[in-house]
Amino acid sequence: MRVVIAEDDAVSRKILETLLCKWGHEVTTTQDGEAAWNVLQEPGAPSLAILDIMMPGIDGLELCRRVRLLPNPIPPYIILLTANHGVSEIVKGIEAGADDYLTKPYDRDELRVRVQVGARIVELQTSLAERVGQLEAALAHVKKLEGILPICSYCKKIRNDLDCWQHVETYVADHSQAEFSHGICPTCYENTVKPQLEFFQISQASALEPAK
Amino acid sequence: MSFEPIITTENQETISLIPAPAGVARITSDAVDMKLLNAFEELQADDGTDLIVELIDLYLADAPQRMLAIREAALATDWVLLKRAVHNLKGSSANLGVRHVAETCIKLEGIEFEPSPEGVGELLQQMDGEMSRAREALLSERQRRLQ
Q1: How far is CA B53 from CA A21, A30, A71, in A?
Q2: Rounded distance, CA A119 to CA A96, Å?
Q3: Chain B residues within 8 A of A111 when measuring between CB atoms
């Protein structure tokens, strides 16, 4: 997973980078909020961000607010690093848009599992976004049959948008995903087909009858 | 560049849990928590670089700038700036086990600067001394690792 780190302290940044690389992540490091903001706006930006709250320029809280305003279908998972153990700072961070937080000095195993949680959430969001995309693409192919259709009272042809009269089955096939298989309903069989068959049999029988 | 190891016999803890190579004097110091520093050993890369040396170099390059920023902020009585610089130094010091500097930073952070910043000068002087000892200990460890 691609991860961006925003940390102004060089030692802390190096430690974070080393840990994340060791856990198999692709890491981009930045030393202030401005640089991290630029990275997070790029196409294909990292999907997980670890941001120190206290940084010169754009701080971690402001960065969270900005990132949450980006029109990104899969927003990055944000973990804030705070040296302040006070509840108010944590509340501020989560209200600003952070998903999680860690207080410094953090435990390495705790960081590892919290990053894992972030990765799971991002994977879930990615999977959902893919499904939504597939559904939208499928919906785009579904043609709709709606509105008032002019139909001939006798032959039952339908007048289409081009003012041409089409057979019902052609019209429906053109305007939906439906396909037709042809058969004969019992009523039509009784009223139309059966008399025709009888007429045909009689005609054949009389044709085969020897001339008197 | 080479550094001379500083041997401080009055201190209690060994500078490293790793046995010193043959011919290298046993160095002791309590300025740096070597147990904490050497815990980074497990994060060492396979490319031959020494992460701990790298961290020491980063710290020794960064800390003087932080100290200067703290002094300048104190002279300008800019307590917000001072607290920020102290906060940064505290973080990197705590990370590397430079505990006395980190402890002094905590004391500085805890000072009520208004109406009068009592004890700031004394703590800054103390921090200078702690930093000097920590620097020596870190340089010794750096040299030991590069041998």
Answers
A1: 18, 21, 43
A2: 20
A3: none
In this predicted structure, what is the pLDDT of residue A120? 97
What type of residue is A167? H
With contact defined as beta carbons under 8 Å apart, do B62 and A9 qualify? Answer: yes
Nearest Cα residue in chain B from A18: B43
A chain contacts of residue B58, beta-carbon cutoff 8 Å: 10-11, 14
* Residue to substitute from A5, A11, A20, A112, interface B, most B β-carbons within 10 A: A11
Per-residue pLDDT of chain B (147 residues; tens, 9 = 90+): 333 333 343 433 433 333 444 333 334 468 999 999 999 999 998 888 899 999 999 999 999 999 999 999 999 989 888 988 898 899 899 989 999 999 999 999 888 877 677 788 899 999 999 999 999 999 999 999 998
A11 touching B, CB under 8 A? Answer: yes
φ, ψ dihedrals at A167, nearest 5°: -60, 150
Residue A54: Cβ within 10 Å count: 21
Rounded to two decimals, the pTM is: 0.71
Question: Nearest to residue B14, comparing CAs of B36, B34, B41, B39?
Answer: B34
Which residues in chain B have their CB less than 8 angstroms from residue A54's CB? 84, 87-88
Quote the pLDDT of residue B4.
37
CA distance B93 to chain A (A): 9
